[in-house]
Every structure is written in C-alpha cells, then in structure tokens.
Design a protein that fits this description.
By secondary structure, the protein is mainly beta. Among the domains are: 2-89, OB fold (Dihydrolipoamide Acetyltransferase, E2P), CATH 2.40.50; 94-139, no CATH class. It contains 1 helix and 12 strands. It has one helix at residues 2-21; strands spanning 23-32, 39-44, 49-55, 70-75, 83-89, 103-106, 112-116, 120-124, 177-178, 181-182, 189-190, 193-194. A 5-stranded mixed beta barrel has the order 1-2-3-5-4. A hairpin with a 3-residue loop joins strand 7 and strand 8 (120-124). The longest helix has 20 residues, at 2-21.
Amino acid sequence: MANELNAIERLLAPIKRRLRLSLRRARLSSVDDSSPRQHLKVNVFSGELADNIERFQNYGHTSVPPKVSEAIVAALGGNLDQLIALAVEDKDCRPAGLIEGDSCLYHLEGHNFKLTKDGVGILSLKRLIIDAEQSVVINTPSFTVNASTVHLNASGELTSNTPKATFTGEVFAQEFDADGIKYTAHFHRVNGSPTTGPQS
C-alpha cells in the first residue's frame, strides 16, 4: 500500500508543482508599449527575471504602469515559458479612501477623475485640454465658471443667443453695434447741424 501511495505521489508531483507555480507575484522592471499588445519585464519574487511578458488589459482602457509596480503573473498550462500578466498595480499612487460604488481613473502624479455617488463626477488636475475635431456641446440647466481671468478666442464670430445679458463691471470694445447702428458712426442733429459723434 505504501508503495502504491508513493507511486501516486510521484505521479502527482509535477502536476502539483505546476499548479503551485501557475500564479506568482512579481515586481515590474520595464514596460514595452511599442507593439499592439504591451510587454513587460518582471522580477518574479522567487528570484528569476522574466522578459517579454504579455500584459492583457481591459477593452477601452490602457496604461503604462510605473516601474515600482507589482504584478500578478500566470503560467499558462503551468508552463513558466508562457507567462502572462493578469494585473499590475502601484499601491503607493492608487487613490485611497473611496467609498462603495466609487470608480477612479488616476495618474501617478495625483491628478484623477472620480465617479462617486449622487451622480457626481470630480475631475482634479492642473490643466485640461479638449481637442474636438467638429464641435463641443454642453447641455445643462446651469453652467458656472469660477476664474480670476477668462479668455475667449474666436477667429470667426462669438454669438450669444439669450433674452437678457447682465454685466456687473465695465465692458470694453473697439466697436458697438445696436440693431444696425454703429456707436462710432452715430451722429445727432443739434440746431440744424450734425454733432461730432461720440466723445472719448
């Protein structure tokens, strides 16, 4: 009986070894993002260096993790020559303190976009650039911009369709046109003679 158990143990040993090594922790060494599928070089925690590791990412989102990241690598079929990266994370730059249901897209420098409860999205960064090839449309019942300085640069026209516009400060313009009447070319007749036009 003992001999039979030993024989079974020897038979199962390679399978157990493959299962034990099928999932492993690793430390990221470098990233190659030049090909359609990203490849990693990692230091497996058992000591060996593994190169050309394919990293599978979710559709619609891609990233280049920092070199200090940790990874979970899997050996397909238990074969260490067929390692793939299932997950890569740098725990030191991941935003913490989120609540249940939150989702956050983040950069190692700290800027991030967080979706939280009550339909709120919070974008936190230093500079925002929007490149829209055709147009930008914002549909909302209320729109507020809080800034010390606002610049609007239009190479064509600036149109405001509103029944009423209120400005609490001074308004400066090179020309003013009210219903076809230009401010700089507007004259009155006084005592039978035209005025000299608006005064500075």
